[in-house]
Q: What sequence folds into this?
């Protein structure tokens, strides 16, 4: 966690507005910004909802009119009197804080990661991503999808596993990547699945022939700005597109009681926010 002290803030020149770079291309973007006040209170702002942070300083000597402004993407601004701000803390995503990614051998053609992309523990739901996108957002719709090309979507490949469109490969590096339809089918047919609750989160424990297992949390899905199905349903992207269409991609969906949809594979609109469970050789 990075701390910026008030003394550092007050070294700014007269009437300076400083924007904290919440640039999309940043390699180690924080996921939370904490405003720590001198009275001991701490306020948390999610980075996905922030457009910028501005310090408005009128003179080198602190004045009551000086302020710290958290500017949100929806146009709203949260302002703090600068003399009330003790420090700012920028918390990196858990997955970038040395999360213990483990390649679990289930006796299959690939090894499966012990947690979702963006998670800090196996029972953590992790991030929600549109198919082919590598960043979370606060609104999942066709209008916000990066690869919209109405009435269909742009063709970014029939299989994006291991490409620049693969969130697992981009965020985790190395040989980590999204699973294919064949690999998810293998996970279903060659492992045993048991619905359980692990550290307060519902989901499936999937056990392979080696005796090793992984936990797939029922993380739900995002549609527009609404999260639905958490603790009851799991929605996981597959790297393959649906044949004959650019609007949908393959996904794997489960619910409690071991009930699956259709022939175990389902399709979702590419803009929806689903979980991703990485694999590696």
A:
């Amino acid at each position: 966690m990075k701390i910026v002290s008030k003394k550092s803030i007050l070294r700014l020149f007269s009437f300076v507005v400083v924007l904290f770079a919440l640039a999309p291309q940043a390699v180690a973007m924080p996921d939370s910004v904490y405003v720590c006040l001198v009275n001991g209170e701490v306020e948390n702002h999610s980075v996905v909802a922030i457009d910028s942070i501005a310090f408005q300083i009128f003179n080198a000597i602190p004045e009551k009119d000086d302020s710290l402004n958290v500017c949100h993407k929806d146009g709203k601004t949260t302002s703090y009197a600068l003399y009330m701000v003790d420090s700012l803390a920028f918390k990196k995503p858990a997955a970038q804080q040395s999360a213990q990614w483990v390649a679990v051998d289930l006796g299959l053609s690939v090894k499966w990661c012990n947690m979702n992309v963006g998670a800090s523990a196996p029972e953590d739901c992790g991030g929600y991503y549109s198919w082919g996108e590598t960043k979370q957002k606060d609104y999942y719709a066709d209008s916000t999808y990066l690869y919209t090309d109405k009435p269909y979507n742009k063709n970014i490949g029939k299989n994006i596993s291991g490409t620049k469109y693969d969130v697992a490969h981009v965020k985790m590096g190395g040989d980590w990547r999204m699973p294919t339809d064949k690999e998810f089918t293998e996970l279903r047919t060659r492992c045993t699945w048991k619905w359980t609750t692990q550290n307060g989160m519902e989901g499936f424990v999937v056990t392979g022939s080696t005796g090793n297992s992984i936990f797939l949390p029922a993380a739900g899905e995002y549609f527009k700005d609404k999260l639905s199905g958490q603790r009851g349903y799991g929605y996981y992207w597959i790297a393959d597109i649906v044949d004959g269409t650019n609007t949908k991609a393959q996904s794997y969906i489960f619910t409690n009681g071991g009930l699956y949809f259709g022939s175990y594979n389902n399709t979702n609109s590419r803009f929806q926010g689903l979980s991703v469970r990485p694999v590696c050789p």
In short: The radius of gyration is 22 Å. Residues 181-190 form the longest helix (10 residues). The mean pLDDT is 80.
